[in-house]
Amino acid sequence: MLDDLERCLLSSEQIAAKVADLGGRISRDYKDKNLIVIGILKGAIVFLSDLIRQIKIPLYLDFIAVSSYGSSTESSGVVRILKDLDKSIEHRDVLIVEDIIDSGLTIKYLMENLAARSPNSVKVCTLLDKPARRKTQVLIHYNGFIIPDEFAVGYGLDYNDKYRNLPGIYVLKKEIYGG
Ligand code: IMP
Ligand code: MG
Questions:
Q1: Whole-prediction pTM
Q2: Does a structural domain hold residue 44?
Q3: Mutation test of ligand 1: which of 96, 99, 105 has the most ligand atoms closer than 8 Å to its C-beta?
């Protein structure tokens, strides 16, 4: 598995410091709100499980699973919900937690879909942002790290469902994903 990696992009220590910072900001911003954290399966689960332990106010937790049609390294913008939320988000303050925003098409679809369910608010927290490949404008309220246009794996992020368990974030060798 380690032979497939080009270099380390973010160490687990760098990630932990950023997650603590994001958790602190979210705790302050949502102090008097009705926070529900929604994780996007599966990529966001490692980030989400660390992030919620840095949020010091009560919260609800739910998950949504989506698949975007397209190749394994490029999304097409056509999004399908594979697993929907368990409960209503009406009158709640939704914070969507995503691993990475690339073209922006997935998050744009999800923000619009959730906004139509009468929540108080909908905001986005992403660990990684790859702005070079954006196809649609998205407002990211909480942004961990801006990364270059390379394929990142680890800390939840996968290529063909592999590498999610790496503790840091790494650039995958181009010969692996054919980029
Ligand atoms: P978007 O719709 O293009 O913004 O795609 C976002 C989704 O694509 C993320 O939730 C990831 O699952 C996947 N993705 C985009 N870039 C990467 C990457 O560098 N590594 C792993 N997954 C990625
Ligand atoms: Mg994902």
A1: 0.95
A2: yes
A3: 99
- Domain ranges, residue 156: 2-173
Q: Which atom of ligand 1 has the smallest separation from the CA of 108?
A: 2
Split into its structural domains, the chain has a count of 1
How do residues 55-100 score in pLDDT, each as one tens digit? Answer: 999 999 999 999 876 666 777 778 999 999 999 999 999 999 999 9
Cα 124 to Cα 37: distance, rounded to the nearest angstrom: 10
Q: By the 8 A CB rule, do 132 and 142 touch?
A: no
Concerning whether 21 is annotated as a catalytic residue, the answer is no
Domain presence at residue 147: yes
CATH number at residue 147: 3.40.50.2020
- Per-residue pLDDT tens over the stretch 91-102: 999 999 999 999
- The pLDDT tens digits for 137-166 are 999 999 999 999 999 999 999 999 999 999
Look at residue 179 and tell me if it is in a domain.
Answer: no
Whether 178 is covered by a domain: the verdict is no
Q: What angle do CA 80, 82, 86 make, to 5 degrees?
A: 120
Q: In angstroms, rounded to a whole number, what is the distance separating the alpha carbons of residues 111 and 33?
A: 19
> How many angstroms does the Cα of residue 121 sit away from the middle of ligand 1?
24
